Amino acid sequence: KAGVTQTPRYLIKTRGQQVTLSCSPISGHRSVSWYQQTPGQGLQFLFEYFSETQRNKGNFPGRFSGRQFSNSRSEMNVSTLELGDSALYLCASSSENRGLNTEAFFGQGTRLTVV
Amino acid sequence: GDSVTQMEGPVTLSEEAFLTINCTYTATGYPSLFWYVQYPGEGLQLLLKATKADDKGSNKGFEATYRKETTSFHLEKGSVQVSDSAVYFCALSTPHFNKFYFGSGTKLNVKP
After folding, report:
1. Mean pLDDT of all residues in B43-59
2. CB-hemisphere CA count at 13 Å for A15?
């Protein structure tokens, strides 16, 4: 069974640009979550999608957005990039619909550098 | 709100030493608790989990027991190896939400 796949692995963008990151969850998983990891703030929850609907959202500005497609693949978009957006962006997929035993399986992440 | 606090690192140990990484949590309701490990340049891998009080999660020689009375989930290993060098994250998820709260991570360095 293939794991969570994130593309691309590395990105370098300029301030003011926008970027789109992609995540393919484990086959059969319908929940996809996104996290931002930085040395200063640690792992912070961005948002979660289930069956193409955003169910949870973290405390990030509106420049951060996402969507999920009917095949459960998800994309997140960051517009008007700032230097502080440089981070490792992790995608996680889960099988349960808010089940008690839900565990998240993480991809290898996309390392975004904003210059 | 829900949160996780874990001990600051880095933790440096010699091979075959005993490891403890402390983790405490604050949560409404009855969370599930997890330990994840992150190797350099990689994502997070689930190490072990516990879903209710007094449950013990274990994997690859690592153990952690869900202690509701002390709101803790400390990670232990009896004899660490160089290959255990990584960053360890304690996390919780609460029922009805596929949202994880992570601790700040503890870097473990094991010397030969």
Report:
1. 94
2. 4
